[in-house]
Design brief:
It is a single chain. This protein is α+β, with helices and mostly antiparallel strands. It has 11 helices and 15 strands. It has helices at 18-33, 74-81, 87-99, 120-137, 198-208, 223-227, 235-245, 259-265, 285-294, 298-302, 320-329, and strands at 40-41, 50-51, 62-70, 105-115, 140-148, 158-169, 184-189, 215-216, 221-222, 249-254, 272-277, 309-315, 334-342, 352-355, 364-368. Strands 10-12-7-13-11-15-14 form a 7-stranded mixed sheet, with helices on both faces. Helix 4 (120-137) links the parallel strand 4 and strand 5. Helix 3 runs parallel beside helix 4 (120-137) and helix 7 crosses helix 11 (320-329). The relative contact order is 0.15. It is found in: Cytoplasm.
Length: 374
């Protein structure tokens, strides 16, 4: 066969605009550079990000911690509202706050954005949000990728993902090995829905026929504004709590998909159960709105959303007051959530036991009482 005559098919005609990608990079680079300390080498735009790890030689036995995640269907809310500079906090929070659970300091992060069409200003907004959240977390944004996928994603659609690496001393790793009966659960409040359960939330508002522009008096803002509240990034504050408590913080649990009980159970040793009193905090209005608007059963709500608790610290009894007070100094709502005990009394009336989640055979959580909504 002879080659086709005429101008032929160009990459731009196939739906990929490399010039738009270059413009997006130009718009975002200052925000990315703002996260770079002297440990980041090689400047901006290389094939790989370089991070000077020579500081690790000062560790006795450094362990690297890594995590990767995305934002989920919350991006659909950002796209519908055409607001893209906050979704980065959701991405960074989902990634670095899994690392801090083991006591690791997040060192650096990379991001990946897939879109149907590169709109430079939109991509730059997304990355600026990621960079701003990395600054809050004390993490360098050392690289990323924007991929244009015409025909796979619609022109206005995109998805984001990221990965991060951190470091912790081997003898300072937090987790089940440190948790003992008598330890106290301290809740760190969420900023809202964070970035889990949006498939349920979006289905509820679809069935109810509510628009994102609808003003909701009990929320004090529009529905869309509430649904787009950024995830609280806990990493640097959690590390500060660990340092101040001087060994008093034994474990953290990041409350993401699966809800409070399932995630706390993952960081308890086998044979221990944490008892959580549902009435120990006031349910933020957005969660009760989802429940009542959609007729969502309490069990589904509890197993899907964070219900106002974004992170849980498991703390030695003598350190509880100090942790709660220091959290308040950091601007974090904190309160006693429950206590860790043994497996006795599991037949108590109204006790609901959650264990064996995420394939981890560890401890268990017993939820008791009822939630307070007012």
């Amino acid at each position: 066969m002879s080659a086709a005559q005429g101008p032929g098919v160009t990459y731009a005609e196939a739906g990929v605009d490399t010039h738009a990608g270059d413009k997006a990079v130009e718009l975002m680079k200052d925000a990315v550079r703002a996260t770079h300390g002297p440990q980041v080498l090689g400047g901006f735009g290389g094939f790989a990000g370089l991070y000077d790890a020579s500081a690790l030689v000062g560790y006795r036995r450094p362990l690297l911690a890594t995590s990767t995640d995305g934002v989920g269907t919350k991006v659909a809310i950002a796209q519908a509202m055409d607001i893209h500079d906050t979704i980065g906090f959701d991405l960074v929070g989902m990634v670095v706050d899994d690392i801090v659970v083991v006591g690791a300091k997040p060192l650096f992060m990379t991001d990946y954005i897939a879109c149907g069409r590169v709109v430079p200003e939109r991509i730059a907004d997304i990355v600026r949000g990621i960079a701003a959240a990395c600054e809050v977390a004390g993490t360098a944004l050392v690289g990323g990728e924007t991929a244009e996928h015409p025909g796979l994603l619609g022109p206005e659609e995109y998805d984001v993902a990221g990965a991060a690496t951190g470091v912790v001393e081997a003898d300072e790793v937090l987790g089940p090995d440190r948790v003992r009966a008598g330890d106290v659960l301290v809740a760190l409040g969420s900023s809202g829905l964070h970035s889990n359960g949006y498939s349920l939330v979006r289905k509820v508002i679809e069935v109810a026929g509510w628009g994102l522009e609808r003003h909701v008096p009990e929320l004090g803002r529009t529905l869309g504004e509430e649904l787009l509240v950024p995830t609280r990034v806990y990493a640097s504050d959690c590390l500060a709590l660990v340092e101040r408590a001087a060994g008093g913080v034994h474990a953290f649990s990041h409350v993401t998909g699966g809800g409070l009980a399932a995630n706390v159970a993952r960081v308890l040793p086998a044979g221990l159960v944490a008892e959580v009193a549902r009435g120990s905090w006031l349910l933020p209005p957005v969660f009760d709105l989802v429940r009542t608007l959609g007729g969502v059963p309490w069990g589904d709500l509890e197993n899907t959303l964070n219900l106002g608790v974004g992170m849980v610290a498991i703390v030695a009894p003598e350190s509880v007051d100090g942790v709660v007070a220091h959290a308040a100094e950091l601007g974090l709502p904190a309160w006693e959530l429950g206590v860790v005990g043994d497996l006795s009394g599991l037949d108590a009336p109204g006790a609901e036991l959650v264990s064996g989640t995420k394939g981890v055979q560890a401890g268990a959580v017993r939820m008791t009482g009822e939630y307070r909504t007012s």
